[in-house]
Amino acid sequence: MDKYFNTQSSVIIYGGIVVAAVVILYLLTTLIHKWILRKKRRQFSTVDPTTFNHLKRILNVMWIILGLIALSFIFVEEAEYGAMSDHFQLVLYLGIVAIGTIVAGTIANSWFKKSTLKNIQNNQDTTNLKFLRYVVVIAIYFTGVLFCLLAIPALHAVAQTALGGAGIIALVVGVSSQEALSNLIGGFFIISFKPFKVGDIIKLNDTMIGRVADITLRHTVIRTFNNRMIVIPNSIINKEKLVNYDLGDPKCCEYVEMGISYDSDVDLAKKIMQEECQSHPLVYDNRSEDDKQEGKPIIRVAVVEFEDSAVVIRAWVWASNYGDAIAVKRDAYESIKKRFDAEGVEIPFPYRTIVVKNTKDPISETTTVA
């Protein structure tokens, strides 16, 4: 036994050092991971540990694999040391690239988030930052994957082709007919020409109206006023005719229309509608200086239509933005209805007049029932 230990002492010491190094690195990685999380949670109450967990797992797996490769030197012939050394370097390289990619992506993502929050606090447009965040983060991870492919001999040609100019052209041509590329180009068009931006209120049709919550590489997200998210591919929304209530001048005009019976006093109804709309605190005075000097009212009211059983009166109500205009319209209907009831202005129900002709049918008179 002593002879065996004397002859194999160097191998035993080498194996012990490798195992001890792996255990120390594994425990050290776990301790540093816990320390970083505690420090971050003290600074920020809500910290997403996902990135730190991924880094911990990658490092620990890398230590174990490197340790196994290092131990395998004990059991292989000296002629195979070169191949084992290449495997060791490959695993180390892939681990470093993976860690660097995750760290770079996380730093870029955090920087864009902080810049976006700063712009929000300063009431500045955040559309470009949000869109560029997706582009930069995806580019970082894509580059990391390509560098990993470059290190693997079997996939070396694939990575070189993807990195080369011809490969990029072939890639674009290959997916040009795909919906993914049209959505990506649509996103760049939205960012470049800005038909709308994050925070704008847009209307596609009567059922799709809301505030733009996000613009990604693939789709645009709209939050409706009942707090539902509508996800629309960029290629589709670029083809739609939409209304942007925040593009240009944000002030908005809404129609407040009421129908009164033909027997009601039209002048009294117009006066009530004008007073109730004008008294709302969110009404915007859209009159020009000439209109003010001429004494024109803030709220214009006029008869616009004669229906079967009602005279339709419209009030043009202006507000500083679309949200205020909807609030004025909603409140005005209620207050006008109460004033109409109090002052005897009738809002009619649909009427139907039935005319019964008193004619005699000779056939029916002579018909008898058996």
Short description:
With 370 residues, this protein is of the alpha+beta class. It has helices spanning 2-43, 50-72, 81-121, 127-151, 156-163, 165-175, 179-193, 234-237, 266-278, 289-293, 322-343, 362-366, and strands spanning 201-203, 209-215, 219-224, 229-233, 243-244, 252-260, 300-306, 311-319. It folds into 3 domains: 2-181; 189-244, Roll (SH3 type barrels), CATH 2.30.30.60; 252-343, Alpha-Beta Plaits.
Helical residue percent band: 55-70%
Which strand order do you get reading across the main beta sheet?
A: 4-3-2-1-5
Low-confidence stretches: 363-370
Q: Provide the number of structural domains.
A: 3
Q: What characteristic shape results from the CA principal axes? A: elongated
Q: Explain this structure to me?
A:
This protein has helices at residues 2-43, 50-72, 81-121, 127-151, 156-163, 165-175, 179-193, 234-237, 266-278, 289-293, 322-343, 362-366; strands at 201-203, 209-215, 219-224, 229-233, 243-244, 252-260, 300-306, 311-319. It has 370 residues and is α+β, with helices and mostly antiparallel strands. It has three domains: 2-181; 189-244, SH3 type barrels; 252-343, Alpha-Beta Plaits, CATH 3.30.70. The strands form two sheets. The protein has a five-stranded antiparallel sheet. Strands 6-8-7 form a three-stranded antiparallel sheet, with helices on one face. The radius of gyration is 37 Å and the shape is elongated. The model is unreliable at 363-370 (pLDDT under 50).
